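Reader question, answered in our methods column.
A reader sent in the components of a multi-part assembly and asked whether the whole thing could be modeled at once rather than chain by chain. We filled in our standard form and ran it. Here is what they sent:
COMPLEX SIZE: two components
ENTRIES:
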Amino acid sequence: MIRLEYARSYERSLRRLPNRETRRAAEQLDRLVENPSHPSLNFESVTGSAGWHTVRLNYRLRIFLRRMEPDADGTEVYRVHRVGTHSDYDRL
Amino acid sequence: MAATAAIAFMETLRDRPSIDLPAMEPIRGGTITVLDRARRVAKLRAELIAAEAPLVENLDTLRRIAEEIVSAAQVGADISTDVEAAIEQAEDLETRLAADLKATSRRGDQVMAMARRLSPELAADYAPLLDQWRIASRAYLAGLRDVRIRLMEAEVIMDTRAGDVRRLDSRDDIRRVHRRPGVG
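And here is the structure of the entire assembly that came back:
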């Protein structure tokens, strides 16, 4: 089970996106809550940065999430933090 | 102010060449002599070492600045605007460098293909240098991403301190956050 929270920084980063990408961000977060293993999410941790995860928004952008302390009932909590670029430099 | 320093420093990095492959000059026809081969390989090795050193130094500086910013966030400094600008600058720098390095990587592949056709020995000498270049390039970009993540960590600290965090408990909540005036 996953619970999401969000901060002002996420809202600010949304403001820079076109409407199409904003809608896509909502769809992806919906999916994340329903099924974190959904293939379109590519939900993964950021290598070398403990606690940070990303979800794919499109080929260029990802949503950055920070894992927070779980709820008392064990529910995992992620803070939706910001939309940002994701350079796929592993394929240099 | 550390965030302002980060922005200024990253601006100075933006237009600098990344880790280039300067000595991988195109190979045009003819035979590659032993001397020419040795010259090319030595030149490439020396230039790679010279190109890497300042990048490692830059990264150290950026990491130090990022840590100062995290410390400032921890003690409650009001730096949100500067931190946001620094994150955007780091993102821009990372994107530009990734594009530069990919283009350079493709050029390296082309030169390697030419070298294989003309002088398998030269190709064999180039191969480990090119591998080393790729490793160093990935490490540099990974380092830049680390810096960006540290800056985001500062934002998390500031948001938490300010209590500026809301729950997304339902699909409706998610939609509300993503809805804009005039957008359904």
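What stands out: Residues 135 and 179 of chain B are 43 Å apart (CA to CA). DSSP finds five helices and one strand in chain B.
Send us your own complexes using the same form.
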